[in-house]
Amino acid sequence: MKLVGLILFFLTFFSKLQSEGIYNAKSFQLKNGMKVVVVENKRAPVVSQMIWYNFGSGVEEKGKSGLAHFMEHLMFKGTKKFPDNYYSNFISRIGGSENAFTSYDYTAYYQIFPKYELEKIMQMEADRMVNLTLTEENVEIEKKVILEERFQRVESDPSAKLDESMRSILFPNHYYGTPIIGWRHEIENLTFTDVLKFYKKHYIPNNAVLVLSGDVEFEEVKKLSKKYFGRHKKGKVSFGMETRDPLIETSIKVEMSHPTVKQKIWKKFYRVDSYKKSIKKGLALDIGLKILASGSTSLLYESLVNKKKIFSAVGGYYQGLTKGEGNVYFYAIPNEEINLDEVDKIINDEMKIILNQGISEKRFEIEKKKYIFDSIYSRDGILNPAQSIGESLTIGFSLDDIENLNKKINEITIFDVKDALKSFQENKNFIIGGLKS
Amino acid sequence: MIIKILIFLFFLLTNHNVNSIDFEQLRTEKGINFWFVKDKSLPLISMSFSFKGGALLDPSGKEGATNLMVSLLDEGTENFKGNKLKLSLKENGTKISLSAEKEKIEGTFQVVSSQIQEGFWLLYESINKPLFNSEDITKVKKQIQASIKIDKSVVSTQASEKFNEIFFKDSLFSRNVKGTSESLKKISRNDIFKIHKESFTKNNLIIGVAGNIDSENAKKYIDYVFGELPSSKAKRETPPFNNLEKGKEFFEMETPQATIVFGQRGFGRKNKDYFAARVLNYVLGGGGFQSRLYKEVREKNGLVYSIYSYLMPYESDGVIIGGFQTRNKNVDETILKVKQEWKKMKNQGISANELKEAKTYYKGSFSRNFTSTISIATLLKVVQYYDLGKDYFANRSGIIDNLKLKEINSLASRIFDEKNLFFMIVGKRNM
Fold first, then answer.
1. I want to staple B345 with a disulfide (CB 3.0 to 4.6 A). Which of A65, B48, B112, B416 is the partner?
2. Which residues of B touch A188 (CB under 8 A)?
3. Which residues between 247 and 276 in chain B have a beta carbon less than 8 angstroms from any beta carbon of chain A?
């Protein structure tokens, strides 16, 4: 797909973008149920491969928290055909880079490498989906590594501990309340058998989406996917527990006091509807919160930081790309000593004033335009497209949803945004947190 | 004058892998030089630039002045008062990022093609016409002071700060770019104007541009944005550090896991042995999941989640820095392992196979710089910043091929010395 020359006619540019889709990705499905998506981009002779498994910590059994993330680490331990760290070593040798990450709803692995090694990389990725060889020693040493990771990310960071505690209360009944990395005492008790069981049960082709982005040909990818991933048998998909959380009817405040904390921070987490419930409503809430609380141009910042000088920073954002409920995070750093309730009141009062005055058409148009511009930036690079396509597909959206995002943005009206903010304002499913010394 | 040079990204034995890209060395009417790659694959333009100088040249007692000045550049300008500048950036698909570093001010600028005039106007305003309102100064000072407090609350940032403070002893390199809460109080509005004038001069400027624009327009816009800046004879160079601390120091913090930052002298990017040192470090602690430190400390012993080392080149000298986190009780054992690896590197160097794999890594990884317009622009800038020469792209493969095992191992025995290492430990002593 060539875009050269488009700028000469930038009057037609926006309409063209909308009709053509953002990434112009091509896709197909293998007989065993695995999806494959290709985004061609020939700028440099480089490819990025991402494999997205549509499960994360959400499929763990009760009491086995951290298992999905543990498994992600162990996926680097080698297979019979490519033992030990042959795969990682190979990637380094050819000048590539790689990593992996686990979330509540998905687990993903990626490699960026010179295009002439496409076949070998696809072969090795396919191989480790089903042929991993693990020893008890691998598992025991890796457990120590993961505990160090937990200590690094959470135990030695009071702010992260507060977040973890707030989420566990905000989601008392859903897996979003359990940390992805796992509770310390449960990580300590994970066994070799737990790991093997988890691997066999979940690492199956019909749980996976393969995304290749960069200097590749669709037909070539099709051929190689059939050859290497196509030989794996379809498995039985087991879903995580589909539990819902009760309404929060009490007012909940959590405080983390720690001697190393030198700066007080106020936080507030909300449970809100996700994009899955309605893309349109999700986008309206996102736009509304961007106007209200995102960055130093937001209405809250203008009033509470610039004019009234109560905070040195205040902000918030929506995270709605989730299988279950989404979240909104708010934070504030007060200039003076103010208690948690007082901070909450100041922000609520300000929100009321802003919403009563109404949001200007101009602000609304700026945020909409920004979405369209961002979709141009998102194609500059090869990992970005694979990342946003992979994430959206594993959450449960279609390729069309992603390609036509700009069209949906243009359909949103200022009334949608006002409605979204109004119901957000009435939302009682939140928890307030404070970090102090 | 336009000089067209064919860049060979990487040579590999199989001929279909040879890749080339056109880059131009350009000079504007007002005498500003820059490197340029035309790339029409997307309707956007990216620019990466540096002003030599930076935070270490802040006047004594007013540390943090450069960082404060840079942080104020998007707060309001002559034609975009209050938050108009930031709103216009959003409205015009333009991104500007400016940051103060030790020896330079770094900037990136990106704009979508349809908003090119507006985008460059916004960059012009923020570089040339900042207002530095007293009210904004007070606000941004408070924000930086809050971020200094947050840095002090976090074990890992506290560890790097303490490391710099002690390792670099009395040299300017021991300073924190952000300054201190006290030094920020002493910076006046006049100081900020002065720093602004001194920092942004034509002769200290280095630029790389990539994207959907032709060379004549690129020249025109660069003159527009930077052409009014003063020329200055003053060399903006930081005096080099002399002695570096050795041994170890401990700083007590209430935490179950300690952060350790360590280092020793390395050398500057212009040193002829730089690439060889880079290869040695790649084997020791640089190469992702492949380095000796990673394998020994994480994979075999499970003592850490991450461990690394890297070369930090400065203008006239450089250092090798490393770091890891481990439970308080494992600190001594892990430090010992790092020292052993250091000693092994000094005494035995690397193997023929390790050299071979490092060479193919550096050849293969270079093309990753060409996957986005901003990474192309940044590469063009970095090559100029370190005076690597216009032939660098063509010569790079040759530099790598010419590294010989014997020479590289003799270099290893000269640079790596576990007795010169300094370890900063921030954690809680074992009871």
1. B416
2. none
3. 253-257, 259
Contact criterion met (CB < 8 Å) for B113 and A144: no
Alpha-carbon span A96 to A89, nearest angstrom: 10
CA B112 distance to own-chain centroid: 26
Cβ atoms A344, A352 nearer than 8 A: no
Do A339 and A262 form a contact (C-beta atoms < 8 A)? no
Tell me whether residues A10 and B44 touch, CB distance under 8 A.
no
Neighbours of B355 (CB within 10 A): 21
Q: Which of A20, A40, A61, A72 is catalytic?
A: A72
The domain limits of chain B are 3-226, 247-350+405-427
In chain A, positions 201-240, which contact chain B (CB-CB < 8 Å)? 214
Nearest to A262 among B153, B298, B367 (CB): B153
> A13 and B43 in contact by Cβ < 8 A?
yes
| Radius of gyration over every alpha carbon of chain B, rounded to an integer in angstroms | 23
Bridge partners of residue B20, in order along the sequence: B8
B 16-75 residues inside an 8 A Cβ radius of A: 16-17, 19, 39-44, 46
Indicate the CATH number for domain B247-350+405-427: 3.30.830.10
- A287 and A165 both lie in a single domain: no
Q: Which residues, at least 6 apart from B109, have a Cβ–Cβ distance to it below 8 Å?
A: B46, B47, B48, B49, B94, B95, B96, B119, B123
- Please confirm, yes or no, whether A188 is among the known catalytic residues: no
Shared domain check, A310 and A169: no
| Partner-chain residue, chosen from B41, B83, B254, that has the shortest CB–CB distance to A296 | B83
Place of tokens 């924190």: B176
CATH number of residue A117's parent domain: 3.30.830.10
The interface predicted TM-score (ipTM) is: 0.92
Tell me: do A197 and A260 sit in the same domain: no
The CATH superfamily label for domain B3-226 reads Metalloenzyme, LuxS/M16 peptidase-like (3.30.830.10)
The DSSP symbol for B311 reads E
Q: Are residues A387 and A321 in the same domain?
A: yes
Comparing CA positions, the residue from A371, A404, A206 lying closest to residue A284 is A371
The pLDDT tens digits along chain A (437 residues) read 333 333 333 333 343 444 478 999 999 999 999 999 999 999 999 999 999 999 999 999 999 999 999 999 999 999 999 999 999 999 999 999 999 999 999 999 999 999 999 999 999 999 999 999 999 999 999 999 999 999 999 999 999 999 999 999 999 999 999 999 999 999 999 999 999 999 999 999 999 999 999 999 999 999 999 999 999 999 999 877 789 999 999 999 999 999 999 999 999 999 999 999 999 999 999 999 999 999 999 999 999 999 999 999 999 999 999 999 999 999 999 999 899 999 999 999 999 999 999 899 999 999 999 999 999 999 999 999 999 999 999 999 999 999 999 999 999 999 999 999 999 999 999 999 999 98
Please tell me whether residues A151 and A291 are part of one structural domain: no
What is the Cα–Cα distance from B139 to B145, expressed in whole angstroms?
10
Contacting B residues, span 99-158, partner chain A, CB-CB under 8 Å: 110, 112-115, 139, 142-143, 145-146, 149-150, 152-155
Q: What are phi and psi of A430, to 5 degrees?
A: -145, 165
Query: Containing domain of residue A217, as a range?
Result: 21-228
SS3 A259: coil
Question: How big is the A-B interface in CB pairs under 8 Å?
Answer: 206
Q: Coil, helix or strand for A148?
A: helix
Contact call for residues A206 and A36 (beta carbons, < 8 A): no
Residue B182: closest CA among B13, B323, B61, B343: B61
Residue A257, token pair as written in the block: 């006091």
Residue among B44, B83, B115 whose CB faces A297 most closely: B83
- Interchain proximity B19–A152, CB inside 8 Å: no
Could you tell me if residue A11 is inside a domain?
A: no
